[in-house]
Write a structure and sequence with these properties.
This protein is 43% helix and 16% strand. By secondary structure, the chain is α/β, with parallel strands linked by helices. The strands form 3 sheets. Strands 1, 2, 3, 4, 5, 6, 7, 8, 13 and 14 form a 10-stranded mixed sheet that branches. A 4-stranded parallel sheet has the order 10-11-9-12, sandwiched between helices. Strands 15-16 form a two-stranded antiparallel sheet.
Length: 559
């Protein structure tokens, strides 16, 4: 495949932004021969240790590694060819990971080469690739998007796929593969690393933690890249909507934000923009709130504000809320298992026939939950599954479901003379607007550091590791760079009727400082007009404006 040409439609902002030089940990700015690798103690998986160890006998238990000043044990004398792939949904800063990886490899040895596989993991199987050069990169540094080589969601899970990847990489002379992705993509990277090592294939695998959802984090991975930029974009939009509320004073805006498996985005946006209502999926699950109970809680805030002549407001809704409501979680789980291998269902084209088919297959509780939903939501639950066989939650209009449910509840209260206000709902989904924004200074620096670190992990001859940059509240020069074994973050989960090893998702900690800070303020936000408008991302200016970190990260890590 022919190489793509550099961008020609560069805006004045992008032209100016190209001059920005991301900051690095001090240990990585000097001579590579003076970077030593400090190894810790053997590690174990976060859960299900025996099961995970059995599945990853060749890569399980590896120690954490950090880069420190000292003598390099692995000087780069032989030129390497390294492959990389962008996997899953886009996240701001991906291009800087590419740039950091390229620059790191060049610093280690100017003869090193970087090959990008196109369109995600499928490019590895189909051998669609291009060489990434310094000239090509100049048009992409500090820009949003994944368009330099594209991305995709193909899951590599069969021996035939693995062997195709091996053959293509070996023919190209590739000795290491860097996978940039979220928890599923990096689980795939761990499986590839184990497969290659078990077969004694001379290909190392390194991952980079990406997802705007924020659910790929732990003690070693303080935040996933793209989260800061995306939440700043959504917070600006939410702030604008709050300002519109104060101006029009007649609409309730229900805003769904990305975050299927965790509510980190909703929590971060709430802390930045101060909505009247913010639902946290993890709290819903912990308290086992039903859809009816959630509706009552939201409707009460609407009624309380109406009693103060405030018939307007802002409500934040996490994308994955339905999966955290007990009866809906059970329903969705049944639907995922039911439709995974049902050829008979696939032949049905009429939505009414599909709904009738499912109703006959569901258990009693799930059948009642399914029938309680509006027909439009029922159809959305039965739409095409994602590549992993799950319902595509982003296509379920949860915000409109809540608007309808709250409206019905308020009508009931009006008949009972317990509510006299007006309610007019407006639905929004802030999703794709944030995935490809030009990265904030924080993400530009962090992503570049992750890519640069991945280059040094490759140089160290390691495999089955995730690039890690820590101490992110400190100046970049003091960041700690290194690697974390992928198996260290894994446990076993039930997926499509089977127990499978996966990187454990990080949920909002209801005992953590970010949630406690939110919980202490939400009561006042519910009845007062305290909307905050953080404004657009600032690339230049004083550090307290241009170099801020995510609010949840600050609350979690600040001492």
């Amino acid at each position: 495949m022919k190489s793509k040409s550099a961008r020609s439609n560069v805006s004045p902002l992008q032209a100016a932004r190209a001059a920005y030089r991301p900051k690095l940990s001090k240990v990585l700015t000097g001579n590579p021969s003076k970077v030593a690798f400090k190894f810790g103690k053997p590690t174990r998986s976060i859960g299900d240790q025996e099961a995970v160890k059995k599945l990853f006998p060749n890569t399980y238990g590896q120690p954490e590694v950090s880069f420190v000043a000292g003598k390099s044990p692995a000087p780069m004398k032989r030129a390497l060819k390294v492959a990389m792939v962008l996997s899953g949904g886009q996240a701001p800063g991906g291009h800087n990971v590419v740039a950091g990886l390229f620059d790191g490899l060049q610093k280690l040895n100017p003869k090193n080469r970087l090959i990008g596989y196109l369109g995600g993991p499928s490019g590895l199987v189909e051998n669609e690739k291009m060489e990434i050069t310094g000239k090509l990169l100049e048009a992409y540094r500090n820009t949003g998007g994944f368009d330099i080589i594209g991305s995709g969601r193909t899951k590599l899970e069969t021996t035939e796929q693995f062997e195709a990847v091996v053959n293509n990489l070996l023919k190209e002379g590739i000795s290491a593969l860097v996978v940039v992705g979220g928890d599923d993509s990096n689980t795939n990277a761990a499986v590839l690393a184990e497969y290659f090592k078990a077969k004694d294939y001379p290909i190392r695998v390194i991952g980079c933690p990406k997802t705007i959802d924020g659910d790929l984090k732990n003690e070693q991975i303080e935040v996933s890249f793209g989260f800061d930029t995306a939440t700043k974009v959504y917070s600006e939009l939410a702030g604008n909507v709050g300002r519109d509320c104060l101006s029009a004073k007649k609409y309730w805006h229900f805003i769904k934000v990305m975050g299927r498996s965790a509510s980190h985005i909703a929590l971060e946006v709430a802390l930045k923009s101060h909505p009247n209502v913010c639902l946290i999926s993890e709290e819903v699950a912990a308290n086992r709130w039903t859809l009816a109970e959630i509706t009552d809680k939201v409707a009460k805030v609407v009624a309380d504000r109406a009693a103060r002549k405030m018939n307007y407001g802002v409500a934040l809704v996490p994308e994955g809320l339905l999966e955290f409501i007990p009866e809906m979680k059970k329903l969705i789980g049944e639907l995922n298992d039911l439709l995974a291998h049902k050829a008979e269902f696939e032949k049905l084209e009429n939505p009414v026939e599909k709904i009738d088919f499912v109703n006959r297959q569901l258990s009693g509780d799930s059948q009642r939950a399914f029938r309680s939903l509006p027909p439009s939501i029922q159809v959305q639950l039965l739409a095409d599954r994602d590549p992993h066989g799950n319902v595509q939650v982003s296509k379920i209009e949860t915000e409109k479901l809540l608007i309808e449910a709250v409206d019905l509840k308020l009508r009931q209260w009006k008949k009972e003379n317990t509510y006299q206000g007006k309610f007019s709902g407006q639905g929004h989904f802030f999703g794709y607007e944030g995935r490809c924004a030009d990265p904030s200074n924080f993400d530009a620096d962090y992503c570049y550091s992750l890519g640069f670190t991945a280059a040094y992990l490759v140089a160290a001859g390691l495999t089955g590791y995730l690039s890690s940059v820590r101490d992110l509240l400190k100046p970049a020069a003091q960041w700690r760079a290194g690697g974390v074994p992928l198996t260290m973050m894994m446990n076993m989960e039930h997926r499509h009727g089977k127990e499978k090893p996966v990187i454990q998702k990080s949920l909002v900690d209801l005992k953590g400082k970010p949630f406690k800070a939110f919980a202490a303020l939400r009561g006042a936000w519910a009845v007062e007009d305290d909307y905050a408008s953080p404004g657009p991302i600032q690339f230049w200016g004083p550090p307290e404006v241009a170099d801020t970190v995510p609010e949840t990260l600050r609350l979690e890590r600040e001492k």
